[in-house]
Amino acid sequence: MANESRPCPCDPGDRFDYGGCGQEVQVGHIKAYVCKPSASTDKAVIVIHDIFGWQLPNTRYMADMLTANGYIAICPDFFVGQEAWKSSNDWAAFNDWVKSRDAGKIDKEVDVVLKYLKDQCGVKKIGVIGFCWGGAAVQHLMLKNTHLKTGVSLYGVIRHFDDKHSLLHPTFFIFGEKDDIIPLEQVTLLEQKLKQNCKVDYEVKIYPGQTHGFVHRKREDINPQDKPYIEEGRKDMINWLNKYL
């Protein structure tokens, strides 16, 4: 990887001072943050958090943004009660930490969330978005879960799926040009493999000058030069969901 002493560049960085508009609920064996629009809808988006977990204010901000665009948004605790990563943790321990939190082993939790959305919220169409660790989880779900309609993977760690590209549903991949953990060669290879193997609609987009986490972590007021790309990434995500949900 790019930097063995710091194997993942995720950082709360400009952590939002944000409380959230939704509420925490119990969904089967896991907890989840849920936000619902004022008007009734049968469309929902599952939000898959990054290594900083389901309670990160930035991620809840993104869930609420989805709700502002008319979707029920749910951000479950896919670590199932295990501690989220903290920026004060020793990065030397990261690889061991993440081994017990496999982005490709969340199917049991997703099934519980799907049942909740259908039974408790009357949802009929469900999409999924995810950031970093959650972006990898989105790719995993797009390869196998028939109940989802579409997905958006934001800077997902694609090296986990080097040989798996036969997506079942339309998928949008968002990457930053200057991402330390996802080199552009990996993105190019992903595009080649998708072109060869993928039979559904997909898009891979690279945002100039952007680093890992730019869509949900940078603060526009601190990084004015990045503001257009942050806004573009968020708009593209919403437009993709609107198109396929």
UniProtKB/TrEMBL annotation:
Domain Dienelactone hydrolase: 30-245
PANTHER family in UniProt: CARBOXYMETHYLENEBUTENOLIDASE HOMOLOG
Keywords from the UniProt entry: Cytoplasm
Predominant location category: cytoplasm
Protein's UniProt keywords contain Cytoplasm: yes
Record-linked InterPro entries: AB_hydrolase_fold, CMBL, Dienelactn_hydro
CC per GO annotation: cytosol
Organism annotation: Poecile atricapillus (Black-capped chickadee)
Localization: Cytoplasm, Cytosol
Protein name per its UniProtKB record: Carboxymethylenebutenolidase homolog
GO terms, molecular function: hydrolase activity
Family: Belongs to the dienelactone hydrolase family.
Pfam short name (any one): DLH
